[in-house]
Amino acid sequence: MTNSFEYGLNASAKKFDGIHKYIRITDIDDSSRKFNSESITSPDIDFSSADNYELKQNDLLFARTGASVGKSYIYTESDGLVYYAGFLIRVRIKPEFDSNFVFQNTFTSSYENFIRITSQRSGQPGVNAKEYASFEISIPSLEEQQMIGSLFKQFDNLITQNERKIDLLK
Fold this sequence. Notes:
The chain is α+β, with helices and mostly antiparallel strands and 170 residues long. It has helices at 99-104, 109-118, 129-133, 142-169, and strands at residues 2-7, 13-15, 21-23, 41-43, 60-63, 72-74, 82-84, 88-93. The strands form three sheets. It has a four-stranded antiparallel β-sheet with strand order 1-8-5-6.
């Protein structure tokens, strides 16, 4: 289902430069799994050699270590120019599969069990790229994947809108 599993930048964060955004594990909202834009930073790197770390439409990110292991995120162009940090693994989904469908599978009990079992280490919990690559999901036709992925994305958006309304009412 994927073209690649790649580790992110090993760079520190600096003040946001107005263009280049840096996503780290802590920048992924725990409940919505969206890019938290409250404290945007930029990576402290030479951008001329960082093209490989730039996220593209439908890329998925997975947290690989610590208490956040298993946390996922799907990039959308509305997030802007984003580079991903070293404790994240980027997955490029092949065009014959729907990224939203794959992303929605990270909210299933099957995925949660996979992370719980696979991440067990003697020290800090972790799942590496090879282990993520071993996670299996049932795949319907592309058309059905797109319908399922779209439906759950609409639910996620509706939940986010209602959470915002609740916050405003408070």
